[in-house]
Amino acid sequence: MEMNREKLCPSKADVSSESAYHCSTCHDDEEWSNSSRGRTKSRSLSASPALGSTKEFRRTRSLHGPCPVTTFGPKACMLQNPKTIMHIQDPASQRLTWNKPPKSVLVIKKIRDASLLQPFKELCVYLTEENNMIVYVEKKVLEDPAIANDDNFGPVKKKFCTFREDYDDISNQIDFIICLGGDGTLLYASSLFQGSVPPVMAFHLGSLGFLTPFNFENFQSQVTQVIEGNAALVLRSRLKVKVVKEHREKMTVQNGIEENGVVSTNTEKEVGKQIMQYQVLNEVVVDRGPSSYLSNVDVFLNGHLITTVQGDGVIVSTPTGSTAYAAAAGASMIHPNVPAIMITPICPHSLSFRPIVVPAGVELKIMLSPDARNTAWVSFDGRKRQEICHGDRSSL
Question: Per the record, which residues fall in region Disordered (predicted)?
Answer without folding.
Answer: 26-57
